[in-house]
Automatic annotation (TrEMBL):
SUPFAM superfamilies reported in the protein's UniProt record: HydB/Nqo4-like, Nqo5-like
Complex formation: NDH-1 is composed of 13 different subunits. Subunits NuoB, CD, E, F, and G constitute the peripheral sector of the complex.
Taxonomic path: Archaea, Methanobacteriati, Methanobacteriota, Stenosarchaea group, Halobacteria
Domain NADH-quinone oxidoreductase subunit D: 303-553
Name listed for the protein in its UniProt record: NADH-quinone oxidoreductase subunit NuoD
Family affiliation: In the C-terminal section; belongs to the complex I 49 kDa subunit family.
Topology versus the membrane: Peripheral membrane protein
Keyword annotations: Cell membrane, Membrane, Multifunctional enzyme, NAD, Transport
InterPro entries per record: NADH_Q_OxRdtase_suD (IPR001135), NADH_quin_OxRdtase_su_C/D-like (IPR037232), NADH_UbQ_OxRdtase_30kDa_su (IPR001268), NADH_UbQ_OxRdtase_CS (IPR020396), NDH1_su_D/H (IPR022885), NiFe-Hase_large (IPR029014)
Catalytic reactions on record: a quinone + NADH + 5 H(+)(in) = a quinol + NAD(+) + 4 H(+)(out)
């Protein structure tokens, strides 16, 4: 397995809880440790100074998540910080505010990704962030009354939602004798938006001068539904519906890993191998769809590349259907393992999987001939959608989007789980930072996933029959200790898919927060697009490989 230090990197410096205590000093009001990280409670007006020091002095350059929640006596924002160089080094910064004045200093000047996070926290919970550059709602209409995840929200109250006319946000600043601006709506119902996404775009001639992704059309209250479900049985069906087109088992693993660590549940090695194999099959299915739709966006070729991608994806779907019984909403993982063993006869399942793996190299060569080696495709993608590494980190970008900018970050290796650390494979990065590099990363990751699957098949074939334990003994009712908190993540097809959970002592989570990689990656779209042309904007959006079910949740 790749060590992560092949490109001249230095091992990250380990920062202890004592070091953090010294660094934060008297700005820390108390400790509030989580299962995954030390936690420090700070004043609402110290947010920027504490986060700046943690980033610049201690190396915590990745704001992975922001969780907002309301208690009976306070509101609370939790900034989950990690390191791109070593995500096992984590720290939680807890910012309480009073219930009568829920105002906290914005973190946006320190981490750009806090922009969207804090807008969501205001929208759903009701915390204001002083100094925020754009304090609008993000998922719900501006005219919405109340905050759906606050304790006093009346779910029975009818809402009157009005539609306001869209104004050109930069017209006064960009109108002169030699230029003129035009406001252009892209989406929400358009094939190139990859779902119900509305992009408010301002053009100066053919040049994009302002982009504002308008999300929330597919918001389904997934976090609240999970808070209403029991750990043991009722939450697991929901994750399939976040990234609903490709990453079902990867989504399920994010919840399983978090809940298993929260409740101290062990998973048998045999089940871990099955999980790893299934997850990589989902990764291939996701990347095939990403490649097919991106070719359609950029190349306009439906008859060859798109259909080839869907053809190969269908083969993967057939294998996953044999394994799980479903083609899309798998519901195959269980806390402590998986629902059942491999399909019988096992030999046929292994043969079908090996046939797919044997034919994959020729198909990848075919894609390279048709697409990555095509001159028109190269012109459309080379040096367009530039995302510099430090900018990607500021927006919390992960997955192929980050690795296409040379960021060597992959949780399968850097924060090992499942059976990955026992297998031979490499993390793929490209330094081009453009649309073309992101395509190349996904193409090469398909080959690395195939290596992992092949090793899993070898292991499963030789596994002794009397040791094929698919699930550990898990209590029927799980009630973790009250106020136990944890953030855990997996490397989904789009990047870091994380979940924060807080137990309130019952059999249901007190708070359930989903960290969507698509949410972060999409927030960086203006950085990729402003100053380029409309076709480049479409290519940049496609290269992010978003799914709005996961963006909105």
């Amino acid at each position: 397995m790749s060590t992560g230090l092949e490109r001249g990197q230095q091992p990250p410096v380990e920062v202890s809880a004592d070091d953090l205590t010294t660094l934060i000093g008297d700005r820390a009001l108390a400790r509030d440790d989580h299962l995954n990280a030390p936690g420090f409670v700070i004043r609402p007006d110290d947010v920027q100074s504490v986060l700046s020091d943690l980033r610049d002095e201690a190396g915590f350059d990745h704001l992975a998540n922001l969780t907002a929640q309301e208690y009976a006596d306070r509101y609370e924002s939790i900034y989950h910080l990690r390191k791109y160089a070593d995500p096992t080094q984590e720290v939680s910064v807890v910012v309480p505010t009073t219930t009568d004045n829920p105002v906290s200093q914005t973190a946006e000047p320190v981490f750009r990704t806090a922009d969207w996070h804090e807008r969501e926290a205001f929208d759903l919970v009701g915390i204001d962030y002083e100094g925020h550059p754009d304090p609008r709602r993000i998922l719900l209409p501006e005219t919405w009354q109340g905050h759906p995840l606050s304790r006093g929200y009346d779910q029975e109250k009818p809402q009157l939602v009005t539609l306001s006319e869209h104004a050109n946000p930069v017209q006064p600043d960009h109108h002169d004798d030699e230029s003129d601006t035009m406001f252009l709506n892209i989406g929400p119902h358009h094939p190139a938006t990859h779902g119900v996404l509305h992009i408010e775009t301002v053009l100066d001639g053919e040049t994009v001068v302002d982009v504002d992704p308008d999300i929330g059309y597919l918001h389904r209250c997934e976090e609240q539904m999970c808070q209403n479900g029991t750990y043991r049985h009722q939450i697991m069906p929901y994750p399939d519906r976040w990234d609903y087109v490709s990453a079902g088992l990867l989504n399920e693993w994010a919840y399983a890993r978090t809940a298993e660590d929260l409740a101290d549940i062990e998973v048998p090695d045999y089940a871990q191998v099955i999980r790893t194999m299934g997850a990589e099959l989902c990764r291939i299915a996701s990347h095939m769809l990403a490649l097919a739709t991106f070719a359609l966006d950029v190349y306009g070729d439906f008859t060859a590349i798109f259909q080839y991608g869907m053809r190969d994806r269908e083969v993967v779907q057939d294998i996953l259907e044999d394994l799980t019984g479903q083609r899309l909403m798998f519901n195959y993982f269980r806390l402590g393992g998986v629902a059942w063993d491999l399909p019988e006869p096992r030999e046929e399942f292994f043969e079908k999987t090996r046939d797919f793996l044997d034919g994959l190299p020729a198909k990848v060569d075919e894609y390279n001939d048709l697409l990555t080696g095509n001159e028109i495709f190269q012109i459309r993608c080379h040096d367009t959608g530039i995302l510099e590494p430090e900018v990607a980190k500021q927006y919390g970008c992960t997955g192929p989007v980050a690795r296409g900018s040379g960021i060597d970050y992959d949780l399968r290796r850097d924060d090992p789980y499942g059976y990955y650390e026992n297998l031979e494979w490499d993390v793929v990065t490209e330094d081009g930072c453009d649309n073309y590099s992101r395509v190349l990363v996904r193409m090469q990751e398909v080959e690395e996933s195939a290596k992992i699957i092949e090793q899993c098949v070898d292991l499963l074939e030789d596994w002794p029959e009397d040791e094929r334990t698919v699930q550990s003994n898990v209590p029927r009712t799980l009630k973790p200790d009250a106020d136990t908190e944890i953030y855990r993540a997996v490397e989904a097809a789009k990047g870091e898919l994380g979940i924060y959970m807080r137990s309130d002592g019952t059999d249901k989570p007190g708070r359930f927060k989903i960290r969507s990689p698509c949410f972060h990656n999409l927030s960086a779209l203006p950085e990729l697009s402003e100053g380029e042309y409309i076709p480049d904007l479409i290519a940049s959006l496609g290269s992010l490989d978003i799914v709005l079910g996961e963006v909105d949740r």
